[in-house]
Batch of 2 targets.
Target 1
Amino acid sequence: NAGVTQTPKFQVLKTGQSMTLQCAQDMNHNSMYWYRQDPGMGLRLIYYSASEGTTDKGEVPNGYNVSRLNKREFSLRLESAAPSQTSVYFCASARGALYEQYFGPGTRLTVT
Amino acid sequence: QKEVEQNSGPLSVPEGAIASLNCTYSDRVSQSFFWYRQYSGKSPELIMSIYSNGDKEDGRFTAQLNKASQYVSLLIRDSQPSDSATYLCAVCGDSGGSNYKLTFGKGTLLTVNP
């Protein structure tokens, strides 16, 4: 089992460009999550999907959109990247509410 | 807004000692509690979960939960240099009914000296 996989590992964007971060899990988990991690701010939830077909905002959703493509895949889209979105992005999945979350390897994004 | 507080450290212990990491949380109705280890440049790795009051042991790790005091801790026995990492406390479940959202502390940096 690969667990949670993310692509790409690294990305550099110019301000205003768009991109989609991909996440997939092979653990048959129901819920999936996107976090960002910034120095001094810790891990913050951007969006989550409790189950296939549903998505909800987390703590810092502005500037992002998500799609739960199927049970395995959950993507994060930046429509018009801004320097404030420079961060490390982690995808995670869990069996469901209150269960342990397992993280992917992360995407390091720089917006210039 | 639910808060999870940890000492930022660094916490420095000699090899073979017990490392004690502490965490407090603000929302009394929180239901699940987790400890993650994060090496520099890597993703968080789950090392312990605890759901009820008391102690839970797994190898060299012991998690302790006291819901009345809103306190959760992690003990690492026989600390090894490979335990040097940032340890993140995470709490799930709150009075707003959000049982999907984990709230993380900012982490404690642990250094184990050979």
Target 2
Amino acid sequence: ETGVTQSPTHLIKTRGQQVTLRCSSQSGHNTVSWYQQALGQGPQFIFQYYREEENGRGNFPPRFSGLQFPNYSSELNVNALELDDSALYLCASSGPPGQGITNYGYTFGSGTRLTVV
Amino acid sequence: AQRVTQPEKLLSVFKGAPVELKCNYSYSGSPELFWYVQYSRQRLQLLLRHISRESIKGFTADLNKGETSFHLKKPFAQEEDSAMYYCALLLFNAGNMLTFGGGTRLMVKP
């Protein structure tokens, strides 16, 4: 059984650029969520994908978008990068929304450290 | 709006001492609460789910709806318990969103 893998591990971008972060979910998991963790803070929910559709969204602007593929892997895209987007981006996978999450929680990846300069 | 508060950024105790990591939440519905832990250079991982009423690595957490708290406790701290601990509230009506507290760093001194 493989865990959640994210790529790349580190990334440096210039303000105004676009970035794509990738996530492979844990085997058997069909739900993927993305979180942003700024330095010294807890993770903040960006959005969740289930069955290739957005299943919920936190308080993030539309320039944060995502995709989920038939193999349950996912991408997070951020357009028009701002300095405040510098953070650790975490991907988390789980079973189906509802009992799959209550019973087993989320499995997190190691994250992608994004620095915007 | 839902909110999770962990009032202590840092908690330092000696090995063998009792530990209590505080977590308070605000939520009008029936809460589903979790504790996650992040050891040094490791990923965030699930420690406890309130629904299972389990004890993991000697840690327990009791949901107190009257005080809207879900404090994490361990009677005798070990050095290997040193880590970052996050309390989280699961919301089913918002895309199964986990709302995290700001985290408490636990340092267990020898």
